[in-house]
Structure formats: structure tokens, C-alpha cells
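User: Hey, my collaborator sent me this sequence without any context and asked if I could get a structure. I don't really work with proteins. Can you help?
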Amino acid sequence: MLLSAAVQVLLTPPPLASRSALHPPLLPTPALRSRAPLLAAADDDGKFVRHSELNPGCAPLGVLLAGFGEDELEAIAMSIEEVFSGPDGAITHVPIVPLAAGDTRVRLRDVLATLAERDSVLPDSPLRLQAPLVMLSGFNTVQTSAAVRAVGALGLSGGSAAARPMFAAVVPNALDKSLRILVDELEGDHAANGRM
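Assistant: No problem. I've predicted the 3D structure and written it out in C-alpha cell form, which is a compact way to encode the shape of the chain:
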């Protein structure tokens, strides 16, 4: 399986689950208005990375989302929690961050640097896409496969095209690209694969 620059479309997703006790309700906050500096560097063409070659240490653990409603965000959070549940019942906390419209002007690296402060917070102006986006950061290959299966099993759709979600995994060569470039690449791959 290959992943484009930030990611490649992996699967098609899927019904909503109940609310999560680990992820508090998503609330808008003024802190989201301040953004990292605008991009000045040029972006490279998309390159592909084999799924088996993902490097989870290249980025912090978290999930970036766009194009979903509050109930869908909660269902995704619960699915991710299940992936990170240990045999003893312990759960590794994974920050869930809905993207803001202003995030498209900054590098992926800068958005990932704000995961902790933006965890479970709805932006005032959410990022709108043709197809919803699930971008996994810091997941190893087993966690990536399990998360795509779990979120895909929810049967979600959304975005302006009421499409199935795009799935992506953060890779090192995507960190210095703007989210706008990455989203354009992902939407192009998603459309080319007949998923929109």
C-alpha cells in the first residue's frame, strides 16, 4: 500500500457510536484564532511512501480531521480510543483535532505542534473540503491499519461532495508542506480513485 506525500487514500470509511468519556465535548475557543506563521517555503511534488515504511517517530501522536460534524467527531474519537486500548484496559490518549480554515495557510509541522492545546476543540471556522479528511500522525503501521478499519467501519460521509473520507498518514516529506497543498493532493488522489 502506498501513501502520497502526507498520505494516500487508504480505504473507504463507514454508523455512529455513542459519546466518549475520554474526549470532552468539542467547544470553540479564541485560542484557535492565533495560527503559526504563514508558509514561505516552496512545496515539493507528492511522493509515495510504502505503508510498511511509515515512520511513526516523525510526528507527534494525534489525528487531524476535517469535514465532520460534532457527532461524527465523537464517533471517530471513540474508534481511535479502541485502537489504542491495551489488553489491561488502559487507553493511550490520542489528541483529536478538527482543522480550522486558517490551517491551510500553515505547514503541517506547525499544525501538529498545536495538537495538545487544540485537542477536542471545535474551531470557529472549520475547514471545508469536498471529502472529509482523517489524517493520522505518529501511528505505527499496525495502528494505522487498525484505525483506518475502525473509522472506515463507521460508514461516515461528508464534505461538499457527501463523499467517503480520505485517509492519510503523516510522513516526513509532508511536514514542511502547507495543509492547502496536502489537501489538494489528497482530494486529487481521492477523486482519481473514484471515491468522490
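In plain terms: The chain has one domain: 2-18+49-192. You can pass these C-alpha cells on to your collaborator as they are.
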